[in-house]
Amino acid sequence: MTAAALANEFAIDVRAGLTERAQKALPPKYFYDGMGSALFEAITLLPEYGLTRADERVVRRCAPELPGWFRNEVVVAELGSGSGRKTRSILEALRVCQPALDYYAIDVSRTALEACRSELAALARVSPLECTYLQGVRHLAACRQPHQSLLILFLGSTIGNFTKAGAARFLADIRAQLQPDDGLLLGADLVKAPAILLPAYDDALGVTAAFNLNLLVRMNRELGACFEPRSFRHMAIWNERESAIEMHLCSVAKQEVAIPGAGCVAAFREGETIWTEASHKYTAAGLREMAGAAGFQVSGEWTDARWPFVETLWLAE
Ligand code: AVI
Q: Are 274 and 248 in contact (CB under 8 A)?
């Protein structure tokens, strides 16, 4: 997508999300501008947010077992390359039997792709694909050789930020591109007590609050909006029915905010919120059900004991 198309999509989503719905909402993908990506990196270091450390621990544990699941040469593709830090141990393990390794990083963010290339270039031939996840997988499925298996990495519980229906659709769409002997390694955060989850999304230092409020700053910068970040406060809520932590931006007063770049004015009641993210938490049984429904067979499961988090390997049947 060109920069102009991305800007236009942001304006359309802002207008629809802040003026046309009973519950105002913005898609979480807009968190990740330069500042948002830096704040997310800081979140991963917070004592309250154990998710990323758990993901890294489990990836390190399962990596040496991965080559045993594949008979063919493996081509690795990662959805949402991030910094590439977690991926190191997987590439190192695969290189033991396959010294010349191809790794495709799929991300819409050029900055993330560049960071990932410099982190992993010593371990594999790194090819960045600047496109959506599905476009990237479609492209690789079409141009891979018959003797190659695709191993798709979707780590960090990013699947949790999809709606339940969206996740099911997305996984089925990925499966439709794969062949028998291809695999998906999925990282997912597991359900745990709200007393642990709530501080993870509302930390004492206020880093997650800044990450959330940065959306307002982004609208000010990119759409000429007039948000006063201090007139909103960060909220994290545990939604028991959906097994999800929701993040909201709550208006502390009745106010109207002009957003010229989106061609609208957003009106807020005191206490009204913009819903900015849902982070779904799973059970191992729920994930197995999702795998079956999408047409995968669960082949391996590795769980972290300190912060319940699972890495699950699904093979295309
Ligand atoms: C990227 N994603 C898995 C994170 C999560 O935990 O849902 C994003 C995040 N939001 C607040 N803190 C971290």
A: yes
